[in-house]
Write a structure and sequence with these properties.
73% helix, 4 helices, FBF1_C, mainly alpha, 3% strand, two-stranded antiparallel sheet, FBF1 factor, FBF1, 154 residues
Length: 154
């Protein structure tokens, strides 16, 4: 009887030890999953911070480009008489103007008179389109990098 009781106690202790081990294994797995989620969240936050920093830089560039007295721009050199003539003239030999084939001739919008407000609004719109295109490009590049990192994981 005594040895049977000791055997039962031993079996019970073994069951309890296995139960505790299973609980610890489950808890470890849960903690590992939480750690992976935190890593992913940290990566997303890092990417968002980088994106915000780039957007701030781009916004500052746009502010600098739109501020009065700015002469040099990505679209060409702005003459003192207004933006309209700079947008309507080709920027380099062989070019037909800004975004050939995508926009009608700017003279159609501006007419022959160079109204500063209309041309400034159009110039601002072009800069905004450029900014949005760059943001889209950055987003797609980040997505490409993210997908590549997912492919590399085991």
């Amino acid at each position: 009887q005594r040895s049977a009781r000791e055997q039962q106690d031993g079996e019970r202790a073994l069951r309890e030890a296995r139960s505790v081990r299973a609980e610890h294994r489950d808890r470890l797995q849960s903690l590992q999953e939480q750690l992976e989620q935190l890593r992913q969240q940290e990566q997303r936050l890092h990417q968002e911070r980088l994106s915000l920093a780039r957007q701030r830089e781009q916004l500052q560039q746009l502010r600098d480009e739109l501020s009065p007295g700015t002469q040099g721009t990505p679209l060409g050199t702005v003459p003192a008489k207004g933006l309209g003539s700079a947008l309507a003239t080709p920027l380099a030999p062989g070019t037909q103007g800004i975004l050939p084939g995508l926009l009608p001739a700017l003279g159609m919008f501006l007419g022959d008179s160079s109204e500063p407000l209309a041309s400034a609004a159009l110039y601002g719109h072009l800069l905004l389109l450029k900014h949005r295109a760059q943001m889209d490009h950055d987003f797609l590049e980040n997505e490409r990098i993210f997908l590549e990192s997912l492919k590399k994981r085991p």
